[in-house]
Write a structure and sequence with these properties.
Number of strands: 17
Radius of gyration: 65 Å
Largest sheet: 5 strands, mixed
Subcellular location: Cytoplasm, Cytoskeleton, Cilium axoneme
GO cellular component, one term: axonemal dynein complex
Strand content: 5-15%
Pfam family, one: DHC_N2
Keywords: ATP-binding, Cell projection, Cilium, Coiled coil, Cytoplasm, Cytoskeleton, Dynein, Membrane, Microtubule, Motor protein, Nucleotide-binding, Repeat, Transmembrane, Transmembrane helix
Organism: Alosa alosa (allis shad)
Structural class: mainly alpha
Shape: flat
Number of helices: 43
Helix content: 55-70%
Length: about 1250
């Protein structure tokens, strides 16, 4: 049995047969004697069939059957654990150890006793227990794990999450899209494998459970609760069967997660290997070592020109960003894979343990919040995955140096865009470049273009293949743009020269082709021949460069659509034709020269006779004859100018012919004189005619269409032209008439401008007619400027100006008066509600604003009244001055009555004062009725002016109401004076505030708003919730509250109560500071700020005076006391460094301010060696004492003593006390004391 068991399970244990033989050697064989009863102390021992002793079951037959049965049962339960360990893929070494320590220890316990006597049947049972059952269980577990679970885990671990591209690069965005689709498909497959593995695990557990007895299956369902958990920490025992199953599930769940991690890491590692490249600076070293460094790039991109830079598209940063997105997509693969059921069970177990730790008071990490992490988060936080992600997060960005080298190699092309082509061409042309210089420039860009074409089609930057096709295209375009810019400049230059040549050829050719019919034709032909001879050299020098320029443009394929390239081919041919035409013309001139010369001489003789006749006729009947009227002289000028122009043309022709044929040129001095005279006369009479025509046109302009500014502009232009005429013309009659015409009209223009003003009314035109004696029918449709100019305007210039000025002034007065009338026809009263009685008040702000506006209107009307041009509007102005002034007076009285009515209404309507002043209250009732009638009228007639001065109602009623209200007020003032004498603090507040207090005297709560006016720092009092008039405490502005006893309603009693409370608290503070164990901060926290300040002053006075008294016997008492005061100051300062409320900080800052002064005083006493409390240096200080015998708190300065007033001051700031302020306080104290002495 043992041999088979050892071979099948590979366990090492003592063979049963050996043990049996060993036990048989040790056993003894004796014949069974007859058993006699055993008795102990006379009592027979009971005889039983079986008995358990030291773990062995003994029977009366000694065949060990009972013991075998017990071992069989124990062995079955122990073998369960062995089967479970095997399911976890535990190594064989551990399985042997477990078998020897757990299983074998049960099966072979005390085998030396029973092994030799065991029956063959029992030995077989143990053999089957050790072999058959174990084989079956192991087979089920191994089959499930290897064939189903492990296969699923292996499939998961080898699942690729990225497209595995090895052959050719691809665009980054395409890679991203394929990666996303691959991850989606892989996620579905991984979810299926994970689910299948979990199902297989559950089936394996069920199969194991079928081999177990019901009693062994306790808690093997659901949460697999531990059978023996820790009572306090709630941890699992890890020994019971449910814990074993629980751990089995945990290990498989962990393997599932690890499979996902391996799949993720495998894909990320592949991506890292594909992206990992050797830096360019080490490529040569690797090549020298014979190591392969070539690798197909993963990504494909392009290098592009983005002026002013050459850039990578997409850039390395963009590729890194997309790569990071791909990595995140891979990590998010598991977000849709559900967690195993074990994860939820384990999370609940951890929460139970965490709660137990909290209950035990453990504040360690175990008590921190435990969250159930999804699989994608577990993957992202796994150290191996995190490491891979970190490596990938900058793997592409690290290629910036190589990318910079690549882009740096292209930097020399930057000259194509760093400079402006137009500017460079402009600078180039300024140097007057020659054709070779043009050729050099264009050829340089052609060479650069060839260099660009030779650039490689792609370059590799790490794992990215960058194509250069787009870059090369852009660079070539830039290069061609530069070539075209210089080519265009050369084309313009050559085209200009060619146009110049063709123009010269056309003009000369056309002239030379004309027939030579007369002397003028001959002269023109001779001029063209001379011009052709002069331009021959220049044309020859231009034709060659022009042809070469267009040849250069053609050679570099620079074509322009202006057609000049085609014209250049016929340029030389046209120049040859012109030369032939010149020779032909020269021959013709030689042939006709004799006949032309004879005709010229005859024509000159006839021209001389004609000129002499023109001289005599011009001198006797010309436009320059004295005494001619300007109009007649202008007509003669036109006739003689036509004759002169004809003679002058002949003169030019004959003079040119004489010069052409070499004859003496005849001189005509009188003809030149007449030319000069006619030129001057043309200027004079041309201007004269323009002025006469313009002025005549002005007269026909309709009066309504008159534009004086345009006329002035034209006249100004005529004056400028007259001033520019030569001095010789200024003595002519036409010049004098012209100047007078313009000057007269210029003088009339200002009058016309004033008369054309829109302010001119019918009354003003009537006055102008009376002045000039001329009728002005302005309303007529045919009324024009001529009708105005017929009147003697310049004769009555000043009177007309006065009428026009008065019209403008009257227009201004009328406009302002209309504005005032329109404004005060729209202003209405605005009303405000008064309590619950309706709108019984004029709105104060609006009414005051309108009164101010009314005063402004009155000022405007007053200025109109003083204007000497107000005659047409004076009655209306006076009427509105009266209305507005009366309205102002009525409204002012109205507001005075309203203010008094409001002031007294609160007193005499429903208040306590009305009961004490019955006569005044009755008078006020009548006033109140009249007031309501006034306000009702204002609502009915809301217009301010109409309501105020429409009739005499308000002007008579308001003074009466004001008088009656003043009577009521006088009576009320006497009443208030009597109240102030009863409670003097009423003198601190105004009459309205006092009336508000007295008017609601029956309500003690209304005093709250006026407490600060009556007391130094009593801001409010706190009333009892049920007892309406019982005051519980009072508070300062800072919010400090002081408890208070029962106080009645009236303010005098409140004042007494406040003082009594402060004094009571001061007494308690005195008792507290008398305690030797007093702690300053506890004292300040226990008492209000005012009493705390008084306490520190009492303490200082007591300690200082005590030190002075003991200073004669104790030499160190003064320094000790001074140090004590310093310690108190430091303690107070230390408090200000803490976190204090606003009121607490104010309190301690005030204490420091006062105590600094007290310490300075004592410092002075120590420095001056004061040794007596009667010394004046001490007596002159403010000293605070609490006299317990008489229950008084007093303040002493020198020999004067005052009681502490117990006025509540609250928690307020104090000014810093300086020697000057201290002296002033002492002086005031002494003056007050002297004033109290009897005279």
């Amino acid at each position: 049995m043992c041999g088979r068991y050892e071979r099948s399970t590979e366990f090492v244990h003592p063979p049963l047969k050996l043990l049996q033989s060993w036990a048989s050697c040790l056993s003894w064989s004796v014949s069974k004697p007859t058993l006699l009863p055993v008795s102990i102390d006379g009592v027979n021992v009971e005889v039983v069939s079986t008995y358990k002793y030291l773990g062995l079951h003994l029977d009366n037959k000694l065949d060990w059957s009972a013991n075998t049965d017990a071992l069989y049962k124990k062995g079955q339960s122990r073998l369960y654990f062995l089967r479970r360990l095997r399911s976890f893929n535990v190594c064989s070494k551990l399985l042997r150890m477990f078998y020897q320590s757990v299983v074998a220890s049960v099966l072979f316990y005390a085998v030396v006793c029973w092994g030799g006597s065991t029956k063959k049947k029992d030995a077989g049972r143990l053999d089957r227990l050790a072999l058959t059952e174990l084989k079956q269980v192991v087979k089920v577990a191994v089959d499930t794990l290897e064939c189903r679970v492990e296969r699923s885990f292996q499939a998961m671990a080898t699942t690729s999450l990225l497209p595995l591209l090895e052959d050719e690069p691809m665009p980054v965005h395409s890679f991203q899209g394929q990666a996303e689709s691959t991850v989606r498909a892989a996620a579905r497959a991984l979810a299926s494998h994970s689910r299948q593995a979990e199902i297989s695990m559950c089936e394996m557990i069920q199969e194991l459970k079928r081999k177990m007895k019901p009693v062994e299956m306790v808690n093997l369902e659901g949460s697999f609760a531990c059978l023996h958990p820790d009572a306090k920490q709630k941890t699992r025992c890890q020994a019971c069967l449910p814990c074993r199953f629980y751990n089995l599930m945990g290990q498989l769940c962990q393997k599932n997660t690890e499979a996902l991690v391996r799949a993720t890491k495998m894909s990320l590692d592949w991506l890292r290997r594909r992206l990992h490249v050797v830096s360019s600076q080490y490529l040569s070293a690797f090549a020298a070592m014979g190591r392969p460094v070539a690798q197909v790039p993963l990504f494909k991109a392009s290098i592009q020109l983005a002026i002013p830079n050459i850039v990578l598209r997409p850039s390395l940063e963009d590729i890194q960003s997309i790569l990071n997105k791909v990595v995140n997509t891979v990590l998010s693969m598991a977000k849709d894979i559900p967690l195993w059921e074990y994860a939820h069970l384990h999370h609940k177990q951890l929460q139970v343990e965490q709660q137990a730790a909290r209950d035990l008071g453990d504040d360690g990490p175990v008590t921190k919040q435990i969250t159930l992490k999804p699989l994608d988060r577990q993957l992202a936080e796994h150290k191996d995955v995190t490491k891979a992600v970190v490596q990938l997060s900058s793997i592409v960005s690290s290629l910036k140096a190589d990318a910079g080298d690549v882009l740096g190699g292209l930097a020399h092309f930057s000259i194509l865009w760093n400079q402006d082509a137009e500017e460079q061409v402009k600078l180039f042309l300024e140097s007057s470049p020659s054709l070779p210089e043009f050729s050099a420039q264009i050829s340089s860009y052609s060479a650069l273009e060839a260099q660009i074409e030779e650039l490689p089609a792609s370059c590799t930057v790490g794992s990215v293949l960058y194509e250069t096709e787009q870059l090369k295209l852009s660079l070539v375009q830039e290069c061609r743009a530069w070539k075209r810019a210089f080519g265009a400049a050369l084309n313009r230059q050559a085209s200009g020269h060619m146009t110049e040549i063709y123009g010269f050829l056309d003009s000369v050719g056309r002239q030379l082709q004309r027939p030579l019919l007369d002397l003028e034709d001959v002269r023109a032909a001779m001029a063209m021949l001379r011009e052709a001879r002069d331009g021959e050299i220049r044309i020859d020098s231009l034709i060659g460069p022009v042809e070469e320029s267009f040849a250069l443009l053609h050679r570099h394929e620079l074509h322009f659509a202006d057609g000049n390239a085609e014209k250049v081919d016929s340029l030389t041919y046209a120049w040859r034709n012109l030369n032939a035409l010149v020779v032909q013309t020269q021959n013709t001139l030689v042939a006709i020269q004799p006949a032309m010369k004879s005709d010229l001489q005859t024509g000159v003789e006839c021209f001389q006779a004609t000129v002499q006749n023109f001289y005599s006729h011009y001198d006797t009947s010309g436009p320059g004859v004295a005494g001619l009227a300007p109009r007649e002289a202008s007509d003669r000028l036109q006739a003689f100018q036509a004759q002169f122009d004809d003679l002058w043309r002949k003169y030019i022709t004959f003079s040119g012919g004489e010069e052409l044929f070499g004859l003496p040129v005849k001189e005509y001095p009188d003809l030149h004189r007449i030319k000069r005279e006619l030129s001057l006369l043309s200027k004079l009479y041309g201007l004269y005619n323009s002025v006469i025509d313009s002025v005549s046109g002005y007269y026909d302009i309709q009066w309504t269409d008159l534009n004086i500014e345009k006329i002035n502009s034209e006249l100004q232009d005529f004056q400028n032209r007259i001033r520019k005429l030569p001095k010789a013309l200024k003595e002519w009659q036409a010049f004098s008439d012209l100047k007078k015409k313009i000057d007269d009209f210029n003088e009339t223009c200002p009058l016309l401008y004033m008369m054309a003003n829109k302010a001119m009314m019918a009354r003003h035109w009537q006055r102008l007619g009376d002045i000039t004696g001329h009728s002005f029918d302005v309303d007529s449709a045919n009324f024009s400027l001529r009708n105005i100019m017929e009147a003697p305007l310049l004769k009555y210039k000043e009177d007309i100006e006065d009428v026009c000025i008065s019209a403008v002034k009257e227009r201004d007065i009328e406009v302002k008066l209309k504005d005032v009338v329109a404004e005060w026809s729209s202003h209405t009263f605005t009303f405000a509600p008064f309590r619950n009685r309706g709108e019984l008040l004029l709105k104060g702000s609006d009414t005051a604003e309108k009164v101010a506006l009314m005063e402004d209107s009155l000022m405007i009307l007053a200025s109109l009244m003083s204007n000497r041009y107000n005659a047409p509007f004076k009655p209306a102005i006076q009427q509105w001055v009266h209305k507005l002034s009366n309205t102002t007076e009525v409204i002012e009285k109205w507001l005075m009555v309203q203010n008094l009515w409001i002031y007294l209404e609160a007193v005499f309507v429903g208040g306590d004062i009305a009961k004490q002043l019955p006569q005044e209250a009755k008078r006020f009732q009548n006033i109140d009725k009249s007031w309501q009638k006034i306000m009702q009228r204002a609502h009915e007639v809301p217009d301010m002016v109409q309501c105020s001065v429409g009739d005499e109602t308000l002007s008579q009623l308001l003074p009466h109401l004001l008088e009656q209200l003043e009577v009521c007020q006088k009576s009320l003032s006497g009443y208030l004076e009597r109240k102030r004498l009863l409670f003097p603090r009423f003198f601190f507040i105004s009459d309205p505030a006092l009336l508000e207090i007295l008017g609601q005297a029956s309500d003690s709560h209304t005093i709250q708003a006026h407490l600060l006016s009556l007391f130094d720092n009593v801001n409010r009092v706190v009333f009892h919730e049920k007892n309406y008039d019982q005051i519980l405490s009072f508070q300062s502005q800072e919010g400090e509250a002081v408890a208070h006893g029962n106080v009645e309603v009236w303010l005098g009693q409140l004042l007494s109560g406040v003082k009594s409370t402060i004094h009571s608290i001061t007494r308690q503070a005195h008792l507290a500071i008398s305690d030797p164990g007093l702690k300053l901060l506890e004292f300040q926290a226990a008492f209000p700020a005012q009493v705390g300040l008084l306490g520190i002053q009492l303490t200082w006075t007591r300690d200082a005076e005590e030190a002075l008294k003991l200073s004669k016997t104790d030499k160190k008492i003064m320094q000790t006391t001074n140090q004590k005061f310093l310690d108190i100051l430091n303690e107070l300062i230390d408090m200000t460094t803490r976190d204090l409320t606003k009121m607490e900080r104010t309190k301690f800052e005030t204490l420091i301010t006062i105590h600094v002064h007290q310490k300075d005083i004592f410092d002075d006493l120590v420095s001056m060696s004061i040794r007596s409390a009667l010394d004046f240096e001490w007596q002159k200080q403010s000293r605070f004492y609490f006299l317990q015998d008489v229950d008084r708190c007093v303040i002493q300065i020198t020999d004067v003593e005052f009681d502490y007033c117990n006025e509540y001051l609250g928690c307020t700031d104090r000014l810093v006390i300086t020697p000057l302020t201290d002296s002033l306080v002492s002086a005031r104290w002494r003056k007050l004391c002297l004033s109290l002495l009897p005279s």
